[in-house]
Amino acid sequence: MKSTEETTPILAAEGLSLGFDGRTVVHSLDLAFERGTVTTVIGPNGCGKSTLLRGLGRLLRPEAGRVTLDGAQIAAMPPRAVACRLSVLPQTPQAPAGLTVGELVARGRHPRQRWYQQFTGGDERAVSDALAATDISDLAGVPLEDLSGGQRQRAWISMTLAQETELLLLDEPTTYLDLAHQVEVLELVQRLNRELGRTVVMVLHDISLAARYSDRIVAMRDGRIVASGTPGEVITPRLLWDVFGLKAQVIAEPTDGRPHVVPIGGCRVVRAVS
Amino acid sequence: MAATLVPPRARTGTLPRRRPLLGLAVGAGVLAAALALSLAIGGRPTSLAELLHALFTPDGSVADLAIRELRWPRTVNGLVVGACLGVAGCLSQGHTRNAVADPGLLGIYPGAALAVVGGSLVFGGAGTTTYAQAALAFCGAVVACAVVFAVGSATRHGVTPVTLVLAGAAVSALAGGFVSLIVLSSDAALDTLRFWQLGSVAVRGGLVPQMLPFVAVGLALAAANIGPLNALALGEDTARSLGVSVARARFLGLASLALLAACAVTLAGPIAFAGLLVPHMVRGLVGADYRWQLPGCALLGASLLLLADTAGRVIARPGELPVGVVLAVLGAPFFVHLARRRRLVTL
To answer: Which residues of B touch A100 (CB under 8 A)?
Structure first.
């Protein structure tokens, strides 16, 4: 079946199995992401959501199945070609001491540079646009280690923006941030989606924040998808119990009516079984 | 679309470029001074007039000969060896993200030593001529690297810095053990080892033209490795996300490291500390970007080796100290300084 550009999902997994160290973590999973949407993957620790994101971003070779980008198999594409269309922000990225924000963001241009063509005017513009979009233009000359957690996360997101890809995969972009900084980062993600038209797939731990900033929610447990749909469809007391072992009420958020999780307690922590 | 989000802003200070350029300029200045000193200072003192005379209007005087026949090849050798060690040190620290990694990482020194000592045992006197020893040392170093790389990449994850370092340690210990075994059983082999193990740029300056093609390939591979190395400095996942083929980048980087270190060990014997010290000094000068670090390491590596070699000629007049000894004596305090620094270097 051949489908038109309109209906082909920008990113899709077909029968995707992923694992490492001889252990399968994600089991033959089918998933599709629509162009221009924000999708958040939620699930308990060890459920395979980060592994799924790594697989979608071709950081991990599939054990079975395939990932497609606009219908083309990602594993068969040249790494640079993929990097021009899809960028991944890993969970705990590392940076060498003394690296400045400007230098970090400039490295996002790597896929578009060649040894004979190091830094063009287009690169310069992309870098300053990315710095401006994340509101850190004034920090360009500051070493990364001198930034606050929120600023540092914005700098990393800025690097993926400089890559100028239509797809952004973010693995727990709010880890280690206080609530205000989490909201700051998620507001940024929302702006990138609404104003720059980027398609975003991310992993988040906070279900209420996920509900608030996502168009679609994918709930995972033990390497399988339990539910997927709009936040209102997916986030129910029943699902929270099934997926997280969490007794909770789900109320409508006063601002926009999206689901908001109120934990009750009496948890049954679900462990991933391998 | 971008226009709606990006407010018009002055594009100032996006890419700080002035500092690295200044650092490279400092490096070039130091190298020029080191070159002049290395040519001017020797067993007998030389005036600037004599130096210029020998370089530009030689007429076969004693001073001309001393400079052109003795100090010139030695200086060129020091330049090449120093540049090789500097760049190799930069690559070894960059690929392992380890601030104390040096070009010896891949078992190059014990590998070369084993080949040299083994050669003297198998071929007798014929194995100890300058050319035979150079060929043996080069082959030994390259074979050791190949073994380390093969062992280090025979894991499920392919080649990783940790498996490489482990394989390097194992191969180094094994080769070192064999060297000890051979040396214990043969006095001739012991003499060969003693002579060879003094890191010195004085003896094998004549081999530079033969080694230059290997040096050139090594440097070209290193230059091609700069972009991937900059991406790998952000972690392997980020590098992959930026379109770097990690396995290929590691292989090319290590091949370059192996070639350069093998050339250095062939031309000067084992010289410790240069490959370790230079990247640290260069990082302080030009920052974290390998586009500046790699040329900076070539400049400062050459400078350090020439200055240490010249110092060795001055300290022990009328004799001289080999550059390897001078560098080891200089290097130890620097290491202590590194260890005492409050903020540890992360790569």
So the answer is: 16, 287
